[in-house]
TrEMBL record:
Transmembrane segments: none annotated. Its EC number is 1.3.1.98. Belongs to the MurB family. This is UDP-N-acetylenolpyruvoylglucosamine reductase. It comes from Leptolyngbya boryana CZ1. The lineage of its organism: Bacteria, Bacillati, Cyanobacteriota, Cyanophyceae, Leptolyngbyales. HAMAP family: MurB. The gene is murB.
Length: 289
């Protein structure tokens, strides 16, 4: 199950980054537990990787063990309660379409988010004025000692795009969401398709990116601030601030993680100079820069 020196660029949406020293892609909770036990026995760090859509991995790669959750994809529907329990590796868009096909409302907004359930629970992913924290019933967490714990939303200290799980050594294995069943599947599919179209109309999907790079400050949209300082289209190496949406950085071909990292800092500096606001990255940076 363990592989050495595995390239990570193809496993991140930015399509950049060096190799993992060790890599595992468990298919069951037991395999996940075994991977963690091995890492702890070797006394090496562990990095959890979902869809790789909100990450910037260093060109030098990552030491220790990288665990991909992409094969943890159980999905169980409870028609009596309108609840669905999903594995951490389930892609959000795929779950949104599954729920729409059943006529279950409440997840249409997630169709355009290129992440997994595990990452969404950890970072409180959201779009269209909705977020994961509003529909989460409970999540099953794997603790560093290999035991499982069930947590309710109140225990996760949810705020905008963050939770108590962020930066911790507790890993999401499953999550249960509360939806509203009983609607016409055709109607729910139409709303879901409309959300997807809105994202495609306003955000660049034609080149690799990580999604939104910066959190929105309280008073302004990050993309608007970046646009005001004239950085749309600005490029460092193969990394470019997107013309369609300035809160996106694109890999225009041949970009390195260092190119993207430098462009992020350049944007921060320019916005701070003009607006006295420090944009906080939403993208998580892993490894040495």
């Amino acid at each position: 199950m363990l592989k050495a020196n595995v390239p990570l660029a193809s496993l991140t949406s930015f399509r950049v980054g060096g190799p993992a020293e060790w890599y595992a892609a468990p298919r069951t909770t037991e395999e996940l537990q075994a991977s963690l036990e091995w890492a702890h026995a070797q006394d090496i760090p562990v990095t959890m990787l979902g869809a790789g859509s909100n990450l910037l991995v260093s060109d030098a790669g990552l030491p220790g063990l990288v665990i991909s959750t992409r094969h943890l994809r159980l999905t169980e529907f409870d028609d009596a309660t309108g609840q669905v329990t999903v594995g951490a590796g389930e892609p959000l868009p795929r779950l949104a379409w599954k729920l729409a096909d059943r006529g279950w409302q409440g997840f249409e907004w997630a169709v355009g988010i290129p992440g997994t359930v595990g990452g969404a629970v950890v970072m409180n992913a959201g779009a269209h004025n909705s977020s994961i924290s509003e529909i989460l019933v409970k999540t099953t967490i794997l603790l560093p000692d290999g035991t499982l714990q069930v947590l309710k939303p109140a225990e996760l200290q949810y705020e905008y795009r963050t939770s108590a799980l962020q930066g911790s050594s507790r890993y999401v294995t499953y999550a249960t969401f509360q939806l509203q069943p009983g609607a016409d599947p055709t109607a729910v599919n139409a709303v879901t398709a409309n959300h997807k179209q809105q994202r495609q109309n306003t955000q660049p999907y034609h080149l690799p990116s990580c999604g939104s790079v910066f959190r929105n400050p309280d008073a302004y949209k990050a993309g608007w601030l970046i646009e005001q300082v004239g950085l749309k289209g600005h490029q460092i190496g193969g990394a470019q601030v997107a013309q369609r949406h300035a809160n996106f950085i694109l890999n225009c071909g041949g970009a390195t993680a260092s190119d993207i990292f430098e462009l992020i800092h350049h944007v921060q500096q320019r916005v701070h100079q003009e607006w006295s606001l420090l944009l906080e990255p939403e993208v998580k940076m892993l490894g040495e820069f």
